[in-house]
Design a protein that fits this description.
258 residues, alpha/beta, TIM Barrel, three-stranded antiparallel sheet, 14 strands, globular
Length: 258
């Protein structure tokens, strides 16, 4: 059954909810839906209290290491960590308390060409059981292509059945942000959710566009219960008015009871 997965998105050291397509290298045009006056550890403690596991902390650019470490220290082993991950720092973030490290951009060169050798190196460094591959993507023709560098740079890696099958042998989970709808609260990419449910042989979390509590049931139906859902901007925990965090916690409790 689909479960709710929590998140902590960090930008310039603060917990924020951002429209994913507005992120850029120079910060111009950034659209922020929410900026918290609470530190990252505040949210980590909430997730720990409610026994929500498998959520992620994402560092969106520089200046987020301190906040990320505080969140991991508050809930050791309960959160995954992504953003700027490479072979040299992966083990350090695991020692800091991350259950898994999440990686995208380091697996590509500057022009967006996939480098399988780097994936092999990372698996050798931390083990596939501690690795989440972020296949966050944008629409490309009739399908999707992985986007790196805070979802701004397209890569040569398509999100298709062949890619999913090949990469599943090298990681424990997938994380897939639908960057075209991320933060817009205008609805999930139902076709992508259905595709992930059909083709992912390992756990996968989808994020992007959720705007109603019923989206959990929709993802459960479309994916056959194989895809989990992260909810951000629409959640009352992050200033949203459409979805109550308490309802999501109750949903997970029912899922565990089944």
């Amino acid at each position: 059954m689909t479960k709710f997965r929590p998140c902590i998105d960090l930008h310039n050291g603060s917990v924020k909810q951002i429209v994913g397509s507005s992120l850029s290298e120079d910060g111009s045009g950034l659209q922020t839906n929410f900026e918290s006056h609470h530190p990252a550890a505040y949210y980590a403690n909430i997730y720990k209290k409610d026994d929500l596991r498998g959520g992620h902390v994402i560092k969106l650019g520089a200046g987020n290491d301190v906040a990320a470490r505080e969140a991991l220290a508050a809930y050791p082993g309960g959160l995954q960590l992504g953003g700027g991950i490479c072979r040299e720092n992966a083990a350090d973030w695991l020692r800091a308390g991350a259950s898994h490290i999440i990686v995208t951009s380091w697996l590509f060169d500057s022009e967006g060409h996939f480098l399988p050798r780097r994936l092999d190196q990372l698996v050798a460094e931390v083990g596939k059981e501690r690795l989440v591959l972020d296949l966050s993507c944008r629409g490309r023709g009739d399908g999707w292509g992985v986007a790196m560098n805070r979802w701004q740079t397209p890569t040569d890696l398509n999100v298709d059945a062949g890619t999913i099958t090949q990469l599943a042998a090298s990681c424990d989970e997938f994380l897939v942000h639908a960057a075209d709808v991320e933060g817009k609260c205008e609805g999930i990419d139902q076709r992508l959710v259905e595709f992930l449910g059909q083709h992912c042989p390992i756990p996968v979390t989808y994020a992007g566009g959720a705007y109603a509590f019923e989206d959990l049931a929709t993802v459960d139906r479309l994916s056959g219960g194989k895809v989990d859902l992260t909810i951000g901007s629409a959640l009352d925990l992050f200033g949203g008015s459409q979805i109550r965090y308490a309802d999501c916690v109750a949903w997970n409790q029912r899922a565990i009871a089944l």
